[in-house]
Amino acid sequence: MLEPALSGPALIHDIDQTLTVTPTLWWLGHSGFVIRFANITFYVDPSLTTPPDRVRCSEPPLEPELVHHADMVLVTHAHSGHLDTKTLVPIIKASPRAKVVLPRSAEEYAHRGGIPNDRTVPTDAGLRIEYFKENLYARVYAVPSAHPQLDWTSKGGHPYLGYLIRFGKWTIYHAGDCAMYSDLAPRLKPFNVNVALLPIGRGNMSVGEVAQLASDIGARWIAPMHYGAFNGDADDDQSSFVTHMLGHHPDQRFHVFRCGEKWTVPEE
Questions:
Q1: Is residue 2 domain-resident?
Q2: Residues 168-211 pLDDT 10s
């Protein structure tokens, strides 16, 4: 496992000092990302307590107590590698304006873990959340994810979500945990996805499915995530992804993150 590219206060400083005209992302390991556009900073599925069944990198790149700048934290579902209350409680304490966006069905899990009701924003597929900061804004649309099939409850709606995060003309899709299903591409295509953060590996998408989905929705960039979550197979999953993309989809652009690495989406 590699050391993080950046970690601790150096990573926080890098995020704070980044002002770009296109979105910038940092990978926190597993499915965790920081997504920043101008001075808006979102965290998605941050899990920084190193559960023993997760393979990220040699150590978490951040201590949650350092995250003072979160505007929103998006959580895809109520599993500890995604809704990690030991990470989220310190983050919302250090970032007093931040709200935690999560599926309706995950509210009780979050509250039991110490996240107050007034700090959560429940959502479901088809709903939109708008965030305004100074003269900027972002929109977040929820899309159902299959884990491994599409589930729905009468009280909580879809328990597994992905998010389309839109800054002006830029749209980033974070799938959470998601297997392929027939209606996924039609749901995503109208949003003109620029960057698709897609899970590969057991219980999620195959490398071939990731490439096909990107083609179907016209995603300009793919970034794989979640790989290596079982039995230390991160190297095999990453190698298979790169080999498949170069051999079968040479025109599809992709970026493979190192933990703690910064990547700014290229201007079109």
A1: no
A2: 999 999 999 999 999 999 999 999 999 999 999 888 999 999 99
Runs of H (alpha helix) within the chain: 8-17, 85-94, 107-112, 184-188, 207-217, 234-248
Cα(228)–Cα(220) distance, rounded to whole angstroms? Answer: 24
The SS3 call for residue 206 is coil
What are the phi and psi torsion angles at 208 (to 5°)? -65, -40
- Are 123 and 116 in contact by the 8 Å Cβ rule? The answer is no
3-state secondary structure of 151: coil
Distance (Å, rounded) from C-alpha 97 to C-alpha 68? 10
Of residues 68, 71, 86, 77, the one with CA closest to residue 35: 71
**What are the C-alpha distances in Å from 8 to residues 3, 12, 28, 59, 236?**
12, 7, 11, 11, 28
pLDDT in tens, 94-111: 999 999 999 999 999 999
Phi, psi angles (nearest 5°) of residue 167 = -120, 105
Is the residue at 154 inside a domain? Answer: yes
Contact 31, 44 (CB under 8 A): yes
Domains held by the chain: number: 1
Residue 247 located in a structural domain: yes
Residue with tokens 């025109």: 251
